[in-house]
Write a structure and sequence with these properties.
alpha+beta; Type Iii Antifreeze Protein Isoform Hplc 12; single chain; 9 strands; 221 residues; 5-stranded antiparallel beta sheet; two-stranded antiparallel sheet; 22% helix; 3 domains
Length: 221
């Protein structure tokens, strides 16, 4: 019976270390992946927020806009105005927010709708009435006023009507005028009109009699 001699090499008598199993390695990667994913999402969100902030604050100008409807010829008050920040075409004429108070007390040169960005051409400081003209308040029965809204700046004719039960007035007074303002107070509508000085007294006398009707002419400009 022979005895086999085994040569032991230093370091080979220790048990080999077990290798990490594929499942354990996978768990390690999965533990790291969610953290990296979350970090990436946060970076993207931060970038989007920063980009949105830059987009909303760059190339924006604060300008004056109408906060309410203003009729042509109406005096503009501070309550009629607001300021907004918008991106503008360089060719668009607007009124900077810093000049807002300069518009107060002026008149609207055109009809302004709420939200309209104001331009210098849309307001005027012309006095009403101008030299040689007069403003006459004409109370008119509501059934003798067109149902179409009468607005400042409209061209109208004020026509003498017959007395109650009377015949049609031949060659009755007809006055062409421009509307300055309208106040509705059923059953009457009071229309302030701009007329030449020479017609003012005659129209005022006619208005006092209550024998006047209003004709709205074309609004075409």
């Amino acid at each position: 019976m022979t005895t086999e001699q085994r040569t032991k090499t230093p370091g080979h008598d220790a048990a080999p270390r077990p290798l990490a199993s594929p499942a354990a390695a996978g768990r390690t990667k999965l533990q790291r992946s969610p953290l990296m994913f979350v970090a990436g999402v946060l970076v993207l969100v931060a970038g989007a927020v920063f980009g949105g902030f830059m987009w909303t604050t760059s190339d924006k100008t604060e300008v004056v806009a109408a906060s309410a409807d203003v009729q042509r010829g109406q005096v503009i008050t501070d309550a009629d105005l607001t300021t907004v920040r918008v991106g503008l075409d360089p060719s668009l004429r607007t009124v900077p927010a810093a000049q807002r108070q300069m518009l107060v007390g002026k008149r609207a040169a055109v009809d302004l709708s709420a939200g309209t960005l104001l331009s210098p051409e849309q307001v005027t400081d012309a006095l009403v009435p101008p030299s040689g003209m007069s403003v006459v308040a004409v109370p008119i029965s509501s059934d003798l006023v067109p149902k179409v809204p009468i607005l400042a700046g409209d061209s109208v004719r004020l026509v003498q009507t017959p007395a109650a039960g009377g015949e049609l007035v031949k060659d009755g007074l007809v006055v062409t005028a421009e509307v300055v303002g309208v106040t509705s107070d059923d059953p009457r509508t009071v229309v302030d009109v701009l007329v030449p000085n020479a017609k003012a007294a005659e129209l005022a006398a006619l208005a006092a009699s209550g024998r006047v009707a209003l004709v709205l002419d074309s609004r075409a400009r």
